From TrEMBL:
Similarity field: Belongs to the LysR transcriptional regulatory family.
Protein name: LysR family transcriptional regulator
Record keyword Amino-acid biosynthesis present: no
One annotated GO molecular function: DNA binding
Protein backbone atom coordinates (compact mmCIF):
# COMPACT_ATOMS: atom_id res chain seq x y z
CA UNK A 1 0.00 0.00 0.00
CA UNK A 2 1.21 3.51 -0.81
CA UNK A 3 2.85 5.38 2.07
CA UNK A 4 2.24 8.91 3.33
CA UNK A 5 5.61 9.82 1.82
CA UNK A 6 4.48 8.55 -1.58
CA UNK A 7 1.38 10.74 -1.45
CA UNK A 8 3.53 13.76 -0.55
CA UNK A 9 5.75 12.93 -3.53
CA UNK A 10 2.68 12.75 -5.78
CA UNK A 11 1.59 16.25 -4.71
CA UNK A 12 5.11 17.59 -5.23
CA UNK A 13 5.21 16.26 -8.80
CA UNK A 14 1.74 17.71 -9.43
CA UNK A 15 2.96 21.06 -8.14
CA UNK A 16 6.31 21.32 -9.95
CA UNK A 17 5.69 19.27 -13.12
CA UNK A 18 9.11 17.66 -12.86
CA UNK A 19 10.61 14.65 -11.07
CA UNK A 20 13.80 16.60 -10.38
CA UNK A 21 12.06 19.62 -8.85
CA UNK A 22 9.72 17.40 -6.85
CA UNK A 23 12.72 15.47 -5.59
CA UNK A 24 14.28 18.65 -4.23
CA UNK A 25 11.04 19.32 -2.36
CA UNK A 26 10.77 15.87 -0.74
CA UNK A 27 14.47 14.99 -0.46
CA UNK A 28 14.69 12.27 -3.13
CA UNK A 29 16.51 11.83 -6.40
CA UNK A 30 14.57 12.26 -9.63
CA UNK A 31 14.89 8.51 -10.26
CA UNK A 32 13.46 7.69 -6.83
CA UNK A 33 10.55 10.06 -7.43
CA UNK A 34 9.86 8.39 -10.77
CA UNK A 35 9.83 4.96 -9.13
CA UNK A 36 7.40 6.10 -6.43
CA UNK A 37 5.01 7.60 -8.98
CA UNK A 38 5.18 4.51 -11.16
CA UNK A 39 4.48 2.28 -8.16
CA UNK A 40 1.54 4.47 -7.13
CA UNK A 41 0.06 4.31 -10.63
CA UNK A 42 0.42 0.53 -10.68
CA UNK A 43 -1.21 0.21 -7.27
CA UNK A 44 -4.14 2.42 -8.30
CA UNK A 45 -4.25 0.75 -11.72
CA UNK A 46 -4.39 4.07 -13.54
CA UNK A 47 -1.99 6.55 -15.10
CA UNK A 48 -1.96 9.87 -13.21
CA UNK A 49 0.40 11.95 -15.38
CA UNK A 50 0.99 12.64 -19.05
CA UNK A 51 4.72 12.40 -19.61
CA UNK A 52 6.54 14.63 -22.10
CA UNK A 53 10.22 14.91 -23.02
CA UNK A 54 10.77 17.82 -20.60
CA UNK A 55 7.76 17.89 -18.31
CA UNK A 56 5.14 15.77 -16.60
CA UNK A 57 1.59 17.07 -16.14
CA UNK A 58 -1.50 15.77 -14.41
CA UNK A 59 -4.06 14.06 -16.61
CA UNK A 60 -7.78 13.86 -15.81
CA UNK A 61 -7.33 11.02 -13.30
CA UNK A 62 -4.44 12.84 -11.66
CA UNK A 63 -6.37 16.09 -11.28
CA UNK A 64 -9.22 14.16 -9.71
CA UNK A 65 -6.82 12.51 -7.26
CA UNK A 66 -5.20 15.74 -6.00
CA UNK A 67 -8.00 16.89 -3.62
CA UNK A 68 -8.47 13.34 -2.35
CA UNK A 69 -4.76 12.99 -1.56
CA UNK A 70 -4.71 16.44 0.07
CA UNK A 71 -7.63 15.45 2.29
CA UNK A 72 -5.91 12.20 3.24
CA UNK A 73 -2.72 14.05 4.22
CA UNK A 74 -4.72 16.61 6.15
CA UNK A 75 -6.35 13.85 8.19
CA UNK A 76 -2.96 12.26 8.82
CA UNK A 77 -1.46 15.56 10.00
CA UNK A 78 -4.41 16.07 12.36
CA UNK A 79 -3.84 12.61 13.85
CA UNK A 80 -0.13 13.29 14.21
CA UNK A 81 -0.72 16.50 16.21
CA UNK A 82 -3.59 15.80 18.63
CA UNK A 83 -2.25 18.20 21.28
CA UNK A 84 -2.28 21.12 18.86
CA UNK A 85 -5.73 20.52 17.41
CA UNK A 86 -6.59 24.22 17.66
CA UNK A 87 -3.17 25.41 16.50
CA UNK A 88 -2.46 26.39 12.90
CA UNK A 89 1.02 25.26 11.95
CA UNK A 90 3.16 24.24 9.02
CA UNK A 91 3.78 25.92 5.68
CA UNK A 92 1.06 27.53 3.57
CA UNK A 93 1.66 28.60 -0.03
CA UNK A 94 -0.41 31.74 -0.59
CA UNK A 95 -0.88 34.08 -3.56
CA UNK A 96 -1.93 37.70 -3.06
CA UNK A 97 -2.38 40.84 -5.12
CA UNK A 98 0.26 43.38 -4.13
CA UNK A 99 -2.48 45.91 -3.46
CA UNK A 100 -4.07 43.59 -0.84
CA UNK A 101 -0.74 43.37 0.99
CA UNK A 102 -0.86 47.15 1.50
CA UNK A 103 -3.86 46.94 3.78
CA UNK A 104 -6.66 44.61 4.78
CA UNK A 105 -5.15 41.20 4.03
CA UNK A 106 -1.83 42.16 5.63
CA UNK A 107 -3.74 42.87 8.85
CA UNK A 108 -5.43 39.48 8.71
CA UNK A 109 -2.15 37.69 8.11
CA UNK A 110 -0.42 39.52 10.93
CA UNK A 111 -3.26 38.66 13.31
CA UNK A 112 -3.11 34.95 12.44
CA UNK A 113 0.66 34.88 12.80
CA UNK A 114 0.36 36.39 16.27
CA UNK A 115 -2.19 33.78 17.30
CA UNK A 116 -0.38 30.86 15.65
CA UNK A 117 3.42 31.30 15.85
CA UNK A 118 4.04 27.85 14.30
CA UNK A 119 2.30 28.95 11.11
CA UNK A 120 4.60 29.73 8.17
CA UNK A 121 3.09 31.52 5.18
CA UNK A 122 5.03 31.85 1.93
CA UNK A 123 3.56 34.69 -0.12
CA UNK A 124 3.66 35.11 -3.88
CA UNK A 125 2.62 38.37 -5.55
CA UNK A 126 0.91 38.32 -8.94
CA UNK A 127 -2.31 38.69 -10.91
CA UNK A 128 -5.71 37.20 -10.10
CA UNK A 129 -5.95 35.32 -13.41
CA UNK A 130 -2.57 33.66 -12.86
CA UNK A 131 -3.46 32.70 -9.31
CA UNK A 132 -6.62 30.93 -10.49
CA UNK A 133 -4.55 28.47 -12.51
CA UNK A 134 -1.96 28.05 -9.73
CA UNK A 135 -4.61 27.31 -7.11
CA UNK A 136 -6.43 24.86 -9.37
CA UNK A 137 -3.20 22.98 -10.17
CA UNK A 138 -2.21 22.77 -6.50
CA UNK A 139 0.82 25.04 -6.85
CA UNK A 140 -0.80 27.38 -4.31
CA UNK A 141 -3.01 26.46 -1.37
CA UNK A 142 -5.10 29.62 -1.82
CA UNK A 143 -4.95 33.20 -3.09
CA UNK A 144 -6.43 36.63 -2.38
CA UNK A 145 -7.93 37.81 -5.67
CA UNK A 146 -10.48 40.10 -7.26
CA UNK A 147 -13.93 38.65 -7.91
CA UNK A 148 -13.66 36.56 -11.10
CA UNK A 149 -15.38 38.14 -14.13
CA UNK A 150 -16.42 34.71 -15.41
CA UNK A 151 -17.25 31.25 -14.08
CA UNK A 152 -14.44 29.35 -12.37
CA UNK A 153 -13.59 25.67 -12.64
CA UNK A 154 -15.98 23.54 -10.59
CA UNK A 155 -13.12 22.49 -8.30
CA UNK A 156 -12.57 26.08 -7.14
CA UNK A 157 -14.36 28.13 -4.51
CA UNK A 158 -14.25 31.95 -4.20
CA UNK A 159 -15.43 33.61 -0.97
CA UNK A 160 -15.89 37.43 -0.79
CA UNK A 161 -13.96 39.15 2.01
CA UNK A 162 -14.28 42.92 1.56
CA UNK A 163 -15.14 45.62 -1.00
CA UNK A 164 -13.19 48.61 -2.31
CA UNK A 165 -14.92 51.44 -4.23
CA UNK A 166 -13.57 52.25 -7.68
CA UNK A 167 -12.46 55.88 -7.67
CA UNK A 168 -10.89 58.48 -9.94
CA UNK A 169 -7.46 59.68 -8.86
CA UNK A 170 -5.94 62.90 -10.21
CA UNK A 171 -2.70 64.77 -9.45
CA UNK A 172 -2.74 67.96 -7.40
CA UNK A 173 -0.05 69.41 -9.68
CA UNK A 174 -0.71 68.03 -13.18
CA UNK A 175 1.61 68.55 -16.15
CA UNK A 176 -1.46 69.00 -18.38
CA UNK A 177 -4.74 70.92 -18.44
CA UNK A 178 -7.07 69.20 -15.98
CA UNK A 179 -10.79 70.05 -16.24
CA UNK A 180 -12.54 70.55 -12.90
CA UNK A 181 -15.51 68.28 -13.72
CA UNK A 182 -14.60 64.58 -13.20
CA UNK A 183 -16.29 63.31 -16.39
CA UNK A 184 -14.67 66.05 -18.48
CA UNK A 185 -11.31 65.11 -16.95
CA UNK A 186 -11.85 61.51 -18.03
CA UNK A 187 -12.65 62.58 -21.58
CA UNK A 188 -9.75 65.03 -22.00
CA UNK A 189 -6.85 64.21 -19.66
CA UNK A 190 -4.20 61.52 -20.36
CA UNK A 191 -5.64 58.31 -18.90
CA UNK A 192 -3.53 55.62 -17.18
CA UNK A 193 -5.54 52.48 -17.84
CA UNK A 194 -5.33 49.24 -15.90
CA UNK A 195 -4.53 46.26 -18.16
CA UNK A 196 -7.78 45.34 -19.94
CA UNK A 197 -6.97 41.62 -19.80
CA UNK A 198 -6.85 41.54 -16.00
CA UNK A 199 -9.79 41.09 -13.66
CA UNK A 200 -9.38 44.62 -12.26
CA UNK A 201 -9.12 45.88 -15.85
CA UNK A 202 -12.61 44.48 -16.47
CA UNK A 203 -13.87 46.56 -13.53
CA UNK A 204 -12.30 49.75 -14.92
CA UNK A 205 -14.05 49.10 -18.23
CA UNK A 206 -17.32 48.66 -16.35
CA UNK A 207 -16.83 51.96 -14.52
CA UNK A 208 -16.23 53.84 -17.76
CA UNK A 209 -19.30 52.24 -19.33
CA UNK A 210 -21.40 53.14 -16.29
CA UNK A 211 -20.13 56.73 -16.40
CA UNK A 212 -20.76 56.87 -20.15
CA UNK A 213 -17.35 58.27 -21.11
CA UNK A 214 -14.49 57.39 -23.45
CA UNK A 215 -10.93 58.09 -22.36
CA UNK A 216 -7.74 59.28 -24.03
CA UNK A 217 -5.50 56.36 -23.09
CA UNK A 218 -1.86 57.26 -22.52
CA UNK A 219 -0.48 54.14 -20.80
CA UNK A 220 -1.75 50.66 -19.95
CA UNK A 221 -0.25 48.70 -17.08
CA UNK A 222 -1.14 45.96 -14.60
CA UNK A 223 -0.21 47.50 -11.24
CA UNK A 224 -2.39 49.66 -9.01
CA UNK A 225 0.72 50.89 -7.23
CA UNK A 226 2.41 51.95 -10.49
CA UNK A 227 -0.71 53.74 -11.72
CA UNK A 228 -0.98 55.65 -8.44
CA UNK A 229 2.67 56.72 -8.61
CA UNK A 230 2.40 57.93 -12.22
CA UNK A 231 -0.67 59.99 -11.30
CA UNK A 232 1.06 61.28 -8.17
CA UNK A 233 3.90 62.61 -10.34
CA UNK A 234 1.41 64.54 -12.46
CA UNK A 235 1.50 62.59 -15.73
CA UNK A 236 -2.11 61.44 -15.97
CA UNK A 237 -5.29 60.36 -14.21
CA UNK A 238 -6.59 56.88 -13.49
CA UNK A 239 -9.44 54.77 -12.12
CA UNK A 240 -8.35 52.38 -9.40
CA UNK A 241 -9.82 50.58 -6.40
CA UNK A 242 -9.54 52.70 -3.25
CA UNK A 243 -7.34 50.36 -1.27
CA UNK A 244 -8.60 49.45 2.17
CA UNK A 245 -6.68 51.27 4.92
CA UNK A 246 -4.52 53.32 2.52
CA UNK A 247 -5.21 56.97 3.36
CA UNK A 248 -4.96 58.63 -0.03
CA UNK A 249 -7.07 61.56 1.17
CA UNK A 250 -4.01 62.68 3.18
CA UNK A 251 -1.68 62.43 0.18
CA UNK A 252 -0.40 65.91 -0.71
CA UNK A 253 0.20 64.93 -4.36
CA UNK A 254 -3.09 63.12 -5.02
CA UNK A 255 -6.84 63.78 -5.06
CA UNK A 256 -9.43 61.01 -4.80
CA UNK A 257 -12.79 61.63 -6.50
CA UNK A 258 -15.95 59.53 -6.36
CA UNK A 259 -17.51 59.44 -9.81
CA UNK A 260 -21.19 60.47 -9.96
CA UNK A 261 -23.55 57.60 -10.67
CA UNK A 262 -20.87 54.90 -10.44
CA UNK A 263 -21.70 52.02 -8.10
CA UNK A 264 -19.09 49.45 -9.19
CA UNK A 265 -16.72 48.22 -6.48
CA UNK A 266 -13.83 45.80 -6.46
CA UNK A 267 -14.72 42.80 -4.35
CA UNK A 268 -11.65 41.05 -2.94
CA UNK A 269 -11.98 37.44 -1.89
CA UNK A 270 -10.30 34.16 -1.07
CA UNK A 271 -9.79 31.62 -3.85
CA UNK A 272 -9.20 27.99 -2.90
CA UNK A 273 -9.94 24.45 -4.01
CA UNK A 274 -13.12 22.99 -2.55
CA UNK A 275 -11.01 20.32 -0.88
CA UNK A 276 -7.39 20.83 0.19
CA UNK A 277 -5.04 20.29 3.11
CA UNK A 278 -5.13 23.86 4.46
CA UNK A 279 -8.85 24.28 5.06
CA UNK A 280 -8.25 25.31 8.68
CA UNK A 281 -6.05 28.19 7.53
CA UNK A 282 -8.48 29.46 4.89
CA UNK A 283 -11.36 29.13 7.37
CA UNK A 284 -9.43 31.33 9.81
CA UNK A 285 -8.89 33.99 7.09
CA UNK A 286 -12.61 34.01 6.26
CA UNK A 287 -13.53 34.17 9.95
CA UNK A 288 -11.24 37.18 10.47
CA UNK A 289 -13.00 39.18 7.76
CA UNK A 290 -16.47 38.01 8.81
CA UNK A 291 -15.79 39.27 12.36
CA UNK A 292 -14.36 42.61 11.18
CA UNK A 293 -16.82 43.32 8.36
CA UNK A 294 -19.16 45.71 10.27
CA UNK A 295 -16.28 47.93 11.38
CA UNK A 296 -14.71 47.81 7.92
CA UNK A 297 -18.02 48.82 6.38
CA UNK A 298 -18.19 51.92 8.58
CA UNK A 299 -14.69 52.98 7.57
CA UNK A 300 -15.47 52.67 3.86
Amino acid sequence: MASIRTFKTFLAVAKYGSFAAAGQEVGLTAAAVGLQIRALEEELDQVLFDRGPRSIVLNTAGRKAVPQVEELLSCYEALASPRDSDELSGKVMMGALVSTLMGAFADALWSLKQQHPKLKVQLFAGLSSDFAYQVESGELDAAIVTQPPRALASSLLWTPLYNEPMVLIVPRQPHFDLPAAPLDALRQAPFIRFDRSTWTGHLVKGVLNEAGVSTRDELELNSVEAAVEIVRQGFGISIVPQLAKVQWEKDRALRVIRLPGVTIERCVGLLERRSHSRLAFTAAIKEYFADSRPARGKRA
